[in-house]
Amino acid sequence: MDVESGNFMKKSIFNISQSIENGVLLYNTFTTSLVELSDELYKTIFVKDDFSLPEIPALYSMGFLIDDTYDEIKAMENIRCDVVKNSSEKIANIIIAPTLECNAHCFYCFENGYRKGRMSQETADALIRFIEEHWNGEKLGITWFGGEPLLASNIIDYISKKLTEKNIIYGCKITTNGSLFDKNIVKKAINLWHVEKVQITIDAVGDEYNRIKNYDKQYKDAFSLVMRNIETALSLGINLKIRINFDPSKQNEALEIMNYLLKRFDNSARLKIYFAPIDADDEIVKNISSEFDEYDEHPYISLIRFGRTHHLYRGFPDMEDDTSIDHEYDMHGLLKKLKIYPSPINCYASCPNVFSIAPNGDIYKCHRALGRKEYASGNVKTGIEENAAYKFFCNTKLTYDECNVCPILPICQGGCKINAQFYSGKEACAPSKAIIKDLILLYREDISKLK
Amino acid sequence: MTILKNVNKSDMERSMELETKQAYSACSDDCPRCRVSDG
């Protein structure tokens, strides 16, 4: 490559440019390099394709310009292939749904129509044998998922005891609505289940929460109950993460919840909070990756700004405490927090060694598909089947044709395959897609503070 | 031209290569791809 002369060069498709005060801000989603150019310089190089200027070698080095024979899409595919190739055949983590039943009935739930079945002791025994056979011998990560997993706490007890008896070392995470997470369950979670983290989803405050969650009749004021349970769990030492599920068209409700939670639990270092946009068909909830031209600002960026103002920074304590996520090219994990750091794979489900287990013992590559028989890849009683469903997830293909020209491909690597199946819009796309330019501006703001 | 962040493409390629050797075996709310963990 003749870098000095600029011959045989082309522009990276991973460049994202935007106008700023005195020129153009240019970011590359793969290298994460960031430069400011005058309008004239930008136009000469990136519009008129004049690659003879003295700035060219630096722009080439930073990935804004590349060899004209270099196939960036193929390079991304090679990275994804390497992840799959390097994956262990053994299991390090497993997602278990001891039940798909739920005491809440959220209108947007991706398990609607599939929320039935509890795990029997016989299936639990088969699951334990499956784990013994496929476990990698290191600390096993278990995620208890549902339905509402605490409706089947007896099965969690049973499996936990058996794993301990078999000297399988494990720690667990629970995803729950919190309604059953009372003092007794919390104590059991700590002492018997080896819980390390609990996630509770909150949709709104007070009556609106009760309306959205639509709990079974015996729950008169589920919101107050869940808030009390959160208090109890925190007081007993549980590390809690609250996920605020929000409808992008109703961002004020999300802000109201966040304000409420900050006021009520602000002093707890054990509590982390983050916003998560609801995935659903557009006629139910407008997709977060959409444009929101009717607003002054995209709802997602508004919520991120709110979190930063309150030092939540996407749900985590402010950056000073976050040295654990330092990265060679991402100081303080700034890009990771903004969810725009490049990733080598689209999802854990693309790797061969990851499974979610349904109450009847069916094995799934993706927890979102639990209960949908057509996506099952065997059963813990009969073993893993590398069938069409398995291959659907466990491959490196891109989700949409548009992924082949998308500048954020290094960030999402093709996105969520199952969302593309479930929903009619572009739900496979990362939420950051619609606000990528705003996120880059925030990043510029962040790194300027580091200097 | 003002360089605000300079990461060499070859260095990022090497870094990504190292990341491909990590275990991608669970979802977390840090995942920008599919927006999980779910709840």
Plain-language structure description:
Chain A has 2 domains: 9-70, no CATH class; 83-363, TIM Barrel (Alpha-Beta Barrel). Helix content of chain A is 33%, strand content 16%. Chain A is built from 15 helices and 15 strands. Chain A has a 10-stranded mixed beta sheet with strand order 11-10-9-8-7-6-12-13-14-15. Chain A has a 3-stranded antiparallel beta sheet with strand order 2-3-4. In chain A, strands 1-5 form a two-stranded antiparallel ribbon. In chain A, strand 2 (15-20) and strand 3 (23-28) form a beta hairpin. Residues 314-324 of chain A have low confidence and may be disordered. Chain B is 28% helix and 10% strand. The chains are: A alpha/beta (451), B alpha+beta (39).
Tags for this entry?
heterodimer, A: 451 residues, alpha/beta, TIM Barrel, ten-stranded mixed sheet, three-stranded antiparallel sheet, 33% helix, 16% strand, B: 39 residues, alpha+beta, 1 helix, 10% strand, disordered C terminus
The total of helices of chain B stands at 1
Work out the number of β strands of chain A.
15
CATH topology name of the largest domain in chain A, in short, is TIM Barrel
CATH class of the largest domain in chain A: Alpha Beta
Kindly state the mean pLDDT of chain B as a whole number? 76
Query: Could you tell me how far the N terminus lies from the C terminus of chain B, measured between alpha carbons in angstroms?
Result: 46 Å
**Structural category of chain A:** alpha/beta
Query: What integer value in Å does the Rg of chain B equal?
Result: 15 Å
Shape annotation of chain B: elongated
| Total discrete domains of chain A | 2
Element pattern of chain B in H and E:
EH
Note the beta-strand portion of chain A: 15-25%
Number of helices of chain A: 15
Percentage of residues in strands of chain B: 5-15%
- N→C terminal distance of chain A: 34 Å
Note poorly predicted spans of chain B. Answer: 35-39
Helical content band of chain B: 25-40%
